[in-house]
Design a protein that fits this description.
2 helices; five-stranded mixed sheet; alpha+beta; globular; 117 residues
Amino acid sequence: TREKGAQKEQQVCACLLSEGVVILEKNFRSRQGEIDIIGRDGEYLVFFEVKYRTGDRCGSAAEAVGNAKQRKICQVADYYRMKHHCTEDTPIRFDVVAVDGEKMQWIKNAFAYVSRR
């Protein structure tokens, strides 16, 4: 499954590149967790979560990014922004790329920033 997930992430990267996204990092890790892809889409610094599901037995891929996962992604994004000296006025966005079987859906602004509090 890890190998299949890596393969799907590569497909997502190719799709994002074809849409003009500049990929800055893949699989960025901190103690809090991991962000699958970090890129630039126009003026936005975008944190992408890639979710893959082979079927809908456990719900759709997009549904798998719940509140706990969103908080974790935001914590890792905070660390990335601090490490790379991003200013407070750098526009950011949290997108989800949901892959259900062979169908890929890019959900821009999938969720809002969730603070640590």
